[in-house]
Design goal:
Elements lengths: L16 E6 L3 E7 L9 E6 L6 H5 L3 H6 L2 E6 L16 H14 L5 E6 L1 H12 L4 E7 L8 H7 L2 H10 L1 H11 L6 H10 L4 H13 L13 E6 L7 H11 L2 E5 L5 H4 L1 H23 L1
Parallel strand pairs: 3-4, 3-5, 5-6, 6-7, 7-8
Antiparallel strand pairs: 1-2, 2-4
Helix pairs in contact: 3-4, 6-7, 6-9
Length: 290
């Protein structure tokens, strides 16, 4: 049975898309609001969360960031959306190197790097391993680790998820849509189509990678200007863990009173805090870009 009867048309017009070849790494799908605009703008690179894509995670933020004068870049990570399909296992460190490679290839480093959820873990790795490409970082809906026993039990189910998505991707996603009570209509057709782009193997391995991630031993030693947009009603990443992350970085906190997935549905509540966080870091970013 088809997963949707409607065409997967984007709900809004997204920034132009391009393919960027990074020598030695591959070709990467990228949204780039500056593709046809040569004006000088401060660059912001957006890194999406697990089981999302650039458009699914950040589609509701693009316009406000562009209107505020930023050149917006948003990459699809490995195995997600239109992202790279490597023959090697999914690794967060590789995603960090991919994003850094894109910025260097386009000669747009350093940029402000913004990471949400899994993208926040990748951003922390960029700050540690590719300091030259990050003038500052913004972390949101993310943490230093996901090592709690109850969370670890969820990660152990990743093998079963990967198998189900490999054998019957449409049926598996459809079951998930039913549990979330998502109707089959023009508004959800794009979401359904985007999720079917994912690599089942990589999505499952990304979950296992998050279970192994732990920046507590080293994050406080990373010297980078930082801000945290704290999703204070988050049921996926507890606000307490987000506060611990901010403390480790000495980052200023901006409180966005939303749940984890409401970055899309409550953008009016989230976007002003993201813009405030970016504005708080512009002095550092402008100095490095000069």
């Amino acid at each position: 049975m088809p997963i949707s009867h409607y065409p997967p048309e984007p709900p809004i017009e997204f920034p132009p898309a391009r393919t960027v070849h990074v020598r030695g790494r591959g070709e990467f799908f990228l949204r780039d609001s500056g593709l046809f605009d040569s004006s000088s703008r401060l660059v912001v690179m957006l890194l999406h969360g697990w089981m999302a894509s650039a458009d699914l995670n950040w589609g509701a933020q693009y316009d406000d960031l562009i209107a505020a004068g930023y050149r917006v870049l948003a990459i699809d990570h490995r195995g997600h959306g239109r992202g790279l399909r490597p023959l090697t296992p999914f690794r967060l460190a590789d995603c960090a190197a991919d994003a850094a490679g894109v910025l260097r290839t386009l000669d747009l480093a350093p940029a402000i790097v913004v990471g949400y959820s899994m993208g926040g873990a990748i951003t922390q790795l960029i700050a540690r391993d590719h300091r030259d490409v990050a003038s500052a970082i913004v972390l949101s809906g993310t943490a230093q680790h996901w090592r709690e026993p109850e969370v670890q039990r969820t990660w152990k189910a990743m093998g079963a998820l990967g198998l189900a998505l490999s054998v019957a991707p449409a049926r598996t996603w459809n079951a998930g849509f039913r549990r979330m009570r998502l109707p089959d209509n023009p508004r959800t057709a794009f979401l359904r189509s985007e999720l079917l782009r994912h690599s089942a193997r990589d999505v499952a391995e990304a979950g296992r990678e998050l279970s192994r991630f732990d920046s507590r031993p080293w994050l406080s030693g990373v010297n980078v200007p930082a801000a945290v947009v704290l999703t204070s009603r988050d049921s996926a990443v507890p606000p307490g863990k987000q506060h611990e992350l901010a403390q480790a970085l000495g980052a200023r906190v901006f409180d966005a009173p939303i749940d984890h997935m409401q970055i899309v549905t409550r953008a009016r509540d989230y976007n002003p805090l993201l813009l405030q966080a970016l504005a708080s870091l512009r002095t550092h970013a402008d100095a490095q870009a000069a």
